[in-house]
Specification:
- The structure holds two protein chains of two kinds.
- Chain A has strands spanning about 5, 10, 20-25, 35-40, 45-50, 60, 70-75, 80-85, 90-100, 110, 115-120.
- Chain A is an all-beta fold.
- Chain B contains no helices and eleven strands.
- Chain B has strands at about 5, 10-15, 20-25, 35-40, 45-50, 55, 60-65, 70-75, 85-90, 95-100, 100-105.
- Chain B is globular and about 35 Å long.
- Classes of the chains: A mainly beta, B mainly beta.
Chain lengths: ~120, ~110
C-alpha cells in the first residue's frame, strides 16, 4: 500500500524559512518523479514544483522560483522542500504527491494528506 | 503559462443526475489533461489522465473527453460520494496549471 506523509509545517514569520519533508513507502521511490502542490485556505490547487526520479531535473512555479528548493534522497525514499524568504501569500496546505512518470511530470496519481504552513507576523 | 478555466464554478445536482463539467485551455494542449476530485479536508485524488483514461479504481460512471482546448468531465449517474470539488490540470508544458475548481453540491 502506498504511503506519503508530509511533515514540517507550522507558523513562521514573514521572511523566515521552513523545511518540509515527505516520507514515502509502498512503491519503488527511485522510479518516479515527485512534486509539491499547495492550497491556500478556501482556494484552489497550485502546483509549486517537481523533481525527476534521479533528482537531476527540477521545475518551479514562477511564484516560488529562487525562494524554494526541492530535493530528494532516494536512499531514504524522501522528498524535501526548503522554503526561504516566506511571504504571507505562501500560507497554504502543502501536499507532497507522486507522479506516474520518471522525468517529465504529467500529473500526480497519489497524494499525501498535506501539512499546513502559516506565514504571519 | 497556459491558463485553465472551468465552468461552472459551482453546480447543484441530485443523486442519479448526469452532470458535465467543462475545462478550457488558453492554448492547445492536445490531450495533456487530467481531472482530480477533492473532498473537504482531504487530499485530491486522480480520476482521469490523458483527457480520457480512467485511473485505476475509479468508477466507470466518470468519463473524460476532449482535445486541443476544450475538455469535459461527465458523471453519468451521481452517487452520494461524488459530491466534491473537481479540478482539471494541464501538463502540456513543464509548468503545470490547475483550473479554479468546480464545486458539485447536493441540491
Amino acid at each position: 500500500e502506498l504511503h506519503v506523509l508530509e511533515s514540517g509545517g507550522g507558523l513562521v514569520r514573514p521572511g523566515g524559512s521552513l523545511r518540509l519533508s515527505c516520507e514515502t513507502s509502498g512503491f519503488i521511490f527511485g522510479n518516479y518523479a515527485m512534486g509539491w502542490v499547495r492550497q491556500a485556505p478556501g482556494k484552489g490547487l497550485e502546483w509549486v514544483c517537481d523533481i525527476s526520479n534521479s533528482g537531476g531535473s527540477t521545475t518551479y512555479a514562477d511564484s516560488v522560483r529562487g525562494r524554494f528548493t526541492i530535493s530528494r534522497d532516494n536512499s531514504r525514499n524522501t522528498v524535501h522542500l526548503q522554503m526561504n524568504s516566506l511571504r504571507v501569500e505562501d500560507t497554504a496546505v502543502y501536499y507532497c504527491a507522486k507522479s506516474w512518470d520518471a522525468v517529465v511530470v504529467p500529473g500526480f496519481d497519489f497524494w499525501g494528506q498535506g501539512t499546513l504552513v502559516t506565514v504571519s507576523s | 503559462d497556459i491558463e485553465m478555466t472551468q465552468s461552472p464554478s459551482s453546480l447543484s445536482a441530485s443523486v442519479g443526475d448526469r452532470v458535465t463539467i467543462t475545462c478550457r485551455a488558453s492554448d492547445s494542449i492536445s490531450t495533456y489533461l487530467n481531472w482530480y476530485q477533492q473532498k473537504p479536508g482531504k487530499a485530491p485524488t486522480l480520476l482521469i489522465y490523458g483527457a480520457s483514461s480512467l485511473h485505476s479504481g475509479v468508477p466507470s460512471r466518470f468519463t473524460g473527453t476532449g482535445s486541443g482546448t476544450d475538455f469535459t468531465l461527465t458523471i453519468s449517474s451521481l452517487q452520494p460520494e461524488d459530491f466534491a470539488t473537481y479540478y482539471c490540470q494541464q501538463n502540456h508544458r513543464t509548468t503545470l496549471t490547475f483550473g479554479q475548481g468546480t464545486r458539485l453540491e447536493l441540491k
